[in-house]
Write a structure and sequence with these properties.
The chain contains two helices and three strands. The protein has about 90 residues and is of the alpha/beta class. The protein has a domain of about 60 residues. β1, α1 and β2 form a beta-alpha-beta unit. The chain is elongated and about 75 Å long.
């Protein structure tokens, strides 16, 4: 019986991913705009959109949601946190 042959493992390291997290004040439009920029899952840069699901559109509420997400996901120092505000009034 022949021994199975195994392919050698690739050496080296993967590039660490950088996350950009955007909290929006809108519920639908902003998420739709930003979906055009979403990279593939294996890209080095990853984009996460936190749309306004609870109708709290004040900029402070967006920032609060963004900070909570960063805390929950334990984001690194090179990750970016953005707030996207579109006010018509």
């Amino acid at each position: 019986m022949a021994k199975p042959s195994f392919a050698p493992r690739a050496s080296g390291f993967r590039e660490p991913k950088t996350f950009i997290v955007v909290a929006t004040e809108g519920r639908v439009t902003e998420e739709h705009y930003l979906s055009a920029f979403k990279p593939s899952r294996d890209a080095v840069l990853q984009l996460t959109v936190l749309p306004n699901r609870n109708n709290k559109s004040h900029p402070r509420e967006c920032l609060k949601r963004l900070r909570q997400h960063a805390k929950d996901k334990n984001l690194a120092g090179d990750d970016q946190l953005w707030v996207m505000i579109d006010r018509d009034q």
